[in-house]
User: Fold these one by one.
Assistant:
Number 1:
Amino acid sequence: MSSYDESQERFEEFLRTYKDDQGSLTYWTKVQQMSINDEISLTIDFQDLISFDNVFLALAAEDPSKFIETINSALLAVLRVEDPDYVSSIDATSLKARISNYTEHVPLRAIRSKHIGKLVRVSGIMMRASEVKPLLVQAMFQCRICDEKIPQTQEEGRYTEPVRCPLCDKKTPMRLLAQESQFRDWQKVRIQESPEELPPGQMPRSIDVIFEGDIVDLSRPGDLVKITGILQTSPDFSRR
Ligand SMILES: [Zn+2]
C-alpha cells in the first residue's frame, strides 16, 4: 500500500470523525448535506486537517497536485458509500475537496520562482473578472471520414484532438460533438495587493487566478479575497 493510499484512507477518516471545539462532526455533517444543497465541492480548513493529522502538512508541501488528487478521490469514495444516487447523478470529475486557509501565506510581491508548482495562500483585492466560459474537459470527437466517435480527455485546458482515427486509421481533422462532450465553468480574475499590504510609495503588484467549477462568480471586483491554490506560470509574450 502506498503512502497515498494510506493518506486517502486517513482523509476519509478525517471527513467521518473530525470534531470541532463544540464536539460537532463538522465535515461529516456537510458531506451528508451535499446532495440536499446540490453541492459539488466541500471546503476544508487546512488548519483543521493538520490538527487532525499533521502528515498532511508534508503531503501538501511535497506534491500539491497529488495531495489534491488524493483528497478528491477520498471525498468521492466516501460519497459513493454514503450517497451513491447523488454520485451517479453528477459528473464525478467535477467533485472537489477544496482547501482554504493554507499555512503558507505569500504576499504578492514575495512570489518567486521557488513557489511555482507549490500550494500557496494569497490575498488581495479582486480587480476584474472575465466572463464565465466553458472549458472543454472531456471531448467527444467524430471522424469526418467514417463517422466513428472517439472520446478524448483534455489535459489542463489544452485542446487535444486524436492524431488519427482508430477505426479507419486516417489522419483527418475531427468534428467536436459539443452535445456529447463535457465542459466545466472557467473564469480568470485578477487580484491586486490590498492597501494594507502595499509598502509606501510602491505600485501595487497583481496576479491572475483561474477559477474552475462552482467557485466562478463567487466574488465580485472590489472584494478582499483569500485564495489557496497552486502557483503556475504562463508564457509572457509581452517581454520578449
Ligand atoms: Zn475514421
Number 2:
Amino acid sequence: RVHDNACVARAAALRASGAEVVPVFVFDPTFFKTSKRGVARLGAARAKFALESVEDLKTTLKALGSDLLVRVGESEDVVAELTLTGANERTIVLTQTEVTSEETDMDVRAEKKCTAVARTGGGDARFERIWGSTLYHIDDLPFELSDLPDVFTPFRNKVESKCEVQSLIPSPSNGALGSVPTSAGNFEWFPKPCDLPFATPKLAQDCAALISNGVDERRAMDFKGGESQALARVKYYLWESKLLQTYFETRNGMLGGDYSTKLAPWLALGCVSPRYVVSEIRKYESEIMENKSTYWVIFELIWRDFYKFFALKYGNKIFHLHGTCSNRSAAWREDDAALKAWKSGMTGYPLIDANMRELKNTGFMSNRGRQNVASWLALDAGVDWRHGADWFEHYLLDYDTASNWGNWCAAAGMTGGRINKFNIVKQTKDYDPQGDYIRHWVPELKDVPAAHIADPSQMPRDLRDKIKLNYPNKIKLPQRSYTEFGSTPGPKRDGGGGGGR
Ligand SMILES: Cc1cc2nc3c(=O)[nH]c(=O)nc-3n(C[C@H](O)[C@H](O)[C@H](O)COP(=O)(O)OP(=O)(O)OC[C@H]3O[C@@H](n4cnc5c(N)ncnc54)[C@H](O)[C@@H]3O)c2cc1C
C-alpha cells in the first residue's frame, strides 16, 4: 500500500534529498515451500490474492510517477543484484520490521549479502527496518516486550489506557518517489502463476484456473487483492452499508459477506493499515454514531496487535508443539483418519464439515468457524494442532504468521490461557440454529430438518431412510478431556530449526 506506510514516507524523504527510489516486490520461494508436516505453505487462492495485490500496487505507483519492480527469487539475491557497487555509492534498503524468524532471517541474509556486494566496489549499503504493521506502534507500548502480558485482556487494558494510536502517515504526492531508474531491471515483466515457485505444478494450474474462472460461487465474498479493493471494502463496510454499527451483533455469523468486516486478507498482506481502519471508525463515530459495535472492530484489531507482539516475545515457541507453556503439556496424537476427515470436511460433525469445506473451496472461514474447527481437531481429536495450523496456512487468504500460529497455539491450550473446548453440537444450535450455513456447504444434509442438523446421527432411523441420508457417521474420537493436560512442563524445544513451521 502507499497509504499510511512509513517505508514509503521514508523513501519519499530520501528522494527529496536526491536519492533514486526503486520499489521492489519479491515472490520469495521460502513462502511457497512445504512445511515439516508436508503441506505446501502457499495455496492457489492466496497466491492469486497476492498477485492481484502486487498488480494493484504497481498501478498505484505508476500513477504517482514511479513503478514497481516485481521479481521471483531469493530476496537476498534480488537485493544484492540491485545494490550499487560504485565507490561513494550508497544503497539503503527500506523494509518493514518483521516479527517471526524466517522473515527476520531473510532480512539478515539480504543485509549481509547486500553490504558485502556494495563493498566490493567501495560502495556502502545499509538496511533500515521500519515498524509498520500494527495499530499501536511498538515504541509506544507502555511496557518492555518481556513484560508483555500473556493474555489478551491485561494487554488491551494497558495499551488502551496508556498509549495513543499514532496519526496516519500521509500518502505520497504525485512525483514524490521520483521516476524509477530503468537500469534497475525489467519493469515490464509481471509474473503469471506458472512463474511462481509453487511447491507443486498443480498449485500453479489451480491458481491460473482461479484467475480465469473465479472462486467457488458459494463464497462469502469475492476477495480481490490490492489497496484499492481494501479501501473500497472499508468504504462499503462503514459508510455505504453502515454495517459497522451492527458488527457486535453480527460478528459471530458464518454465512455471507456482511456479518464481519472481511478486512483480514488485506490487513495480512499490508494492503490496508489498521490505523487507517481505526481512523475511519473514529470519523464514523464523530459523524454518524458511536456504539458498542463501532468500538468492537477496534477491539478485534487489538487482538491482531496482541498476537504480533506475542510472536515477537516468544519467538519460535509459537510453532512448537508445547507452545509457550512452561507448566502445561498434553499427549498430542497422530491420527491420519481424523486429520483426513477434518481436512476434507467429512468428520460427520456438520458444523466442522461445513467450515472445512468453505475454507478449502474459498480460502475463508469465519472466526466462529475457526474456533470450532480448531477446538475439534486439537481438543476433541487430540491431534497435533500444528497440522491444523499448516492447513490454515496453506488455504487462508488472510494467513498471517503471528495471528495464525498464535491463535492455533492458544486454541490448543498451549499458551497457558483459558482452554476453550467447544461443544460442537451446542455451538451449532447457538450459531446456526436453522442449519442454513451447514446446508450451504454440506448439500448431503439439505433435507435434514433443523431439529437434527446439529447432529444427524441422532435422527430416527425411519427419517434417515426417508431422506436417504448419505453423510458420514461421526468419526470415532478418543476419550479425552481437559484433565489430560498435565501440569508438567512440555519439552524445552521441539520442531527443530527453521522456526519449526
Ligand atoms: C485457529 C485460528 C486461526 C486464525 N488465523 C488467522 C490468520 O491467519 N490471520 C488472521 O488475520 N486472523 C486469523 N484468525 C483470527 C480471526 O478468525 C480472523 O481474523 C477473522 O475471522 C477474519 O475475518 P474478518 O476480517 O471479517 O474479521 P472481523 O471479525 O471483522 O475482525 C476485524 C479484524 O480484527 C482482526 N482479528 C479479529 N479476531 C482476531 C484474532 N482472534 N486474532 C487476530 N486478529 C483478529 C483481524 O485483522 C480482522 O480482520 C484466526 C483465528 C483462529 C481461531
